[in-house]
Amino acid sequence: LAPLITSDGSPTFDTLFPSIDVSRGIFFGNEAQGGDGVEGGSGGNGLGGAIGLADNAEANILRSIFRRNVAQGGDGSDGGDGGNGSGGAIYNGDSSASLARSIVFANLARGGSGDTEGLGQGGGLFNDGSFTLERSLIRFNRASDDGDNVFGLLF
């Protein structure tokens, strides 16, 4: 599972950090999978196939490679909606991230199935916070709905 990095609150995954610095990291073949709905419930969201940031966390990523990671929304059950898949490689929700001299290549964000299909947004990067990009290559990523390479504004 991809780590969900938060500055406070209870962890959703195994790892909890208020900030992280990554240099020369290789993130290959990871998956953030939203849980399937139960008894008419909606599927959960899959956020950040390799790295997920939330709750004012901070990440500085340098000279790293993100390849073939997946953010997959969970399937809805008996009329429930599909969950969203956001940020095939990196999900940045209400946090601060920088990516420099890195490669984000061939990642996928896909929504789960359900009464209403979940959204797949930001095949490479999903940003709903502050994100700085410098001298990086972001190519050949896919999203089932919007933002094949990048969803959201980068600063």
Question: Which descriptors would you attach to this protein?
Answer:
about 160 residues; mainly beta; four-stranded parallel sheet
3D structure, described in words:
The chain is mainly β. 0% of the residues lie in helices and 43% in strands. It contains no helices and 18 strands. It has strands at residues 4-5, 19-23, 26-28, 31-33, 46-47, 51-53, 58-62, 65-67, 70-72, 85-86, 90-100, 103-105, 108-110, 120-121, 125-134, 137-139, 142-143, 150-151. The strands form 4 sheets. Strands 1, 2, 6, 7, 11, 15 and 18 form a 7-stranded parallel beta sheet that branches. A 4-stranded parallel beta sheet has the order 3-8-12-16, with no helix packed on it. It has a 4-stranded parallel beta sheet with strand order 4-9-13-17, with no helix packed on it.
Short description:
The protein is mainly beta and 155 residues long.
List the SSEs and their pairings.
Blueprint: E1 4-5, E2 19-23, E3 26-28, E4 31-33, E5 46-47, E6 51-53, E7 58-62, E8 65-67, E9 70-72, E10 85-86, E11 90-100, E12 103-105, E13 108-110, E14 120-121, E15 125-134, E16 137-139, E17 142-143, E18 150-151
Parallel strand pairs: 1-6, 2-7, 3-8, 4-9, 5-10, 6-11, 7-11, 8-12, 9-13, 10-14, 11-15, 12-16, 13-17, 15-18
